[in-house]
Amino acid sequence: MHRAKNGLIERTEMPGADFLQLDRALAPPGDLAGWLAGEVHTAVADGRLPVGARLPASRVLAQDLGVSRGVVVAAYQRLVDSGVVHGAGASGTRVAARPSPVPDRAGAPPAAADRVDLTPGVPDLAAFPRAAWLRAERAVLADLDNADLGYGDPRGHPVLRRELAGWLARTRGVRAAPDDVVVVAGVAQALALVTRALVGQGVRAIAVEDPGSVGAREEVAFWGVEPVPVPVDGHGVDVAALRASGAPVALLTPAHHFPTGVVLAPDRRRALLDWAADGGLVVEDDYDAEHRYDRAPVPALQGLAPSRVVHVGSTSKTLAPGMRLGWVVLPEPLREPVALLKYHSDLGNAVLPQLVLARLVATGELERHVRRVRPRQRARRDAMLAALARHLPDARVHGVAAGMHLLVTLPGDVDDRELADRARAAGVVVHPLSRHRVAPGPPGLVLGYAAQTPDRIHDGIARLAAAR
Fold first, then answer.
1. Mean pLDDT score, 140-152
2. In contact, 326 and 357? CB cutoff 8 Å
3. Using DSSP, how many helices (H) and how many strands (E) does the chain show?
4. Which residues pair with 181 in a beta bridge?
5. How much is the pLDDT for 91?
6. How many CB atoms lie within 10 A of CB 249?
7. Is the peptide bond before 259 cis (omega within 30 degrees of 0)?
């Protein structure tokens, strides 16, 4: 496309057949969309299209190539699904990330491949719903009452607490009124506030899963409570061992355990609720609950015993951890202590992000976003499974089809920390399973896939296999 400026011809975009010098005559028969996606992918990989470059409008490129617009739209969608480009509304489709170079036909490794970060627990940040967030923020600012900009309720804005109570009821089976909800700056703050409130009520020990999140274990210990490890097997936490531990509180991830990926089995759920009915308290970290790929997620425990379960969640996996937005649903004895601690910690979360999130929930945008992201993350999980089958065929994958990570174990005498160090030297970041253990146990690797495109995942697993 060209336009006149000061009597000169200025190029503003390279559309149609000029774009990458595409020639439809060179396309193989039967899959024009695949050919076009492949040409763009190659151009991004070899640097002809840098990150941020704008692709031609689908209508323009279709007209110049002499194909239907649907062909170009399908090709662009393939590139979006692989994470190479992203749609940015009115600003068009742009290159999002450069895929790793691939080995040449002789098998030579890439000369300057960058690091592949397979850290678990990191979502696909490129999928953040920027356009929906911006629309919601504009609507919030247009309707915002001046009083909302003052010091508000430290428990969170009433509108968000109301919307969260309804949303959690619809999607997780949580039974809560708005007054049961406290808005927090993520799960870490929720655990800090609840732990400090429990200390004030005389609690000195909290049972934690083993293996389990090292971050959660350290958070509990930081506030002066002893984390008591309780074993986890293929059915979830060992409730008999929990009883034997004598801990009055248990911090658990029943919907999708980190890091093994197992879901708490029905008989264990019943046994756990019996333990709670006998005076125990469950702190339910609803980790990864919304990301189930083979069936609907299991309901939250809180809905079965609201007076014996503290329910904790956040937008860190659904939106982005940088939003620092979360919630804790509290039984009556903890409501006022946690609210007081929240007040003295920070006077409450920032109001604008709260109201934007409330609007995303109220309009259904948040649920639509989760539905859009779910198949994209499943494709990345499938890509990691395929890469493991090809490069590490003796690896055993654990857990259900859910979440944003896989746990794999390898046969033989493997030091998972040494293997993780060798992988890092080869440009791949993984977590050794032993990092998340207290008691000795089988070694393994925890591999995150949500933040990487399928080709990057394949490259990372290939390098991991070479480092083994």
1. 94
2. no
3. 14, 18
4. 329
5. 67
6. 23
7. yes
Which 3 state secondary structure label does DSSP give 1?
A: coil
Q: What digits encode the pLDDT tens for the residues 298-345?
A: 899 999 999 999 999 999 999 999 999 999 999 999 999 999 999 999
Name 285's bridge partners: 312
pLDDT, position 284: 98
- 3-state SS of the chain: helix, strand, coil percent to 5? 45, 15, 40
Please calculate the CA angle 380-385-387 and round it to the nearest 5 degrees: 90
3-state secondary structure of 438: coil
Integer Cα distance of 56 and 93 in angstroms: 8
Distance CA 52, CA 58 (A): 17
Per the document, the length of the chain is 468
Let me know: does 170 contact 213? Beta carbons within 8 Å: no
Query: Is residue 392's pLDDT more than 50?
Result: yes
Confidence of residue 229 (pLDDT cuts 50, 70, 90): very high
Against a cut of 0.90, is the pTM above it? no
How confident is the model at residue 429, as a pLDDT? 93
Residues contacting 63, CB < 8 A, separation 6+? 16
* 46 CB-near residues (< 8 Å, 6+ apart): none
Query: Residue 318: how many CA atoms within 13 Å on its side-chain side?
Result: 22
Say if CB 408 and CB 419 are below 8 A apart.
no
Q: Which residues contact 282 (CB under 8 A, 6 or more apart)?
A: 249, 250, 252, 272, 276, 301, 305, 308, 309, 310
Under 8 Å between Cβ of 461 and 427: no
Through-space distance between the first and last CA atoms of the chain, rounded to whole angstroms = 51
